[in-house]
Write a structure and sequence with these properties.
about 270 residues, alpha/beta, D-Maltodextrin-Binding Protein, domain 2, 2 domains, two-stranded antiparallel ribbon
Length: about 270
Amino acid sequence: MKKFTKLAVAAVSGAWLAMMTTASFAESTMEKIVRTGEMTIAVQTQGPPVSFIDKDGKRTGLAVELAQMMADDMGVTLIVQDYDWKGLIPSLLSGKADFIAADMTPTAKRSMQVVFTEPVFYSETIAFAMKDSGYTSWKDLNVAGISVGATQASSWADIARDKISNAELKEFAGGTAQTVQALTSGRINAGVSDKATIAGFMSSIEGLVVLDGDISREPLGFAVRPDSTHLLFALDNYMGLIRADGRLDEKLEYWWNTTNWEADHK
């Protein structure tokens, strides 16, 4: 009996040692970036001013430029992969991307799948409609018979579902551009997005207006896989560095707080 116990203990100890040895040799995301000299990000296909293709066919935007700046300072090549909003987290978890560079809210539900950086910037969630709609405030939309659109699987959809619960929510894949298109074609009465994103559409779509009042203010950050601890610390550290030297504020002023980027990219 004692001999059997010793053998069992030895077997368990051996299995544990093997598991720990295997784990210790598993390549981390940062080690993979260093080895390959490439850092891959997942971005939303068309989500100006965070990520989009500009008039010259160039991929750009706030998140793209921040990631590019970090890659340049690291001395690695940035690889950008496009996804619909609902495809961002699956692309990360499947290993296709090293991190998500998007205006993503760190909700409790998403945090069950991925790990978020400290907030990189903040977003005011607003409602928008056509000027002749008769609506003045986002609260006017909280009525049965009104249809409100938002990006599929986004925090905007969650906020609309919570704050404008009496209206019918319609979700659209592909980002805010599809929601705006649904509005201008008369398929919905209003939409929900963030103030900076809608500012980019207002200059090109006559009659598009932001309704009074912020529905909410959300922190936004980048996301990594739960096992990418080194990369998470590196991202937080880098955002702290460029916040201190002024480069982050410069990017936010150009891309997020104003529409200055339109003159160069639309």
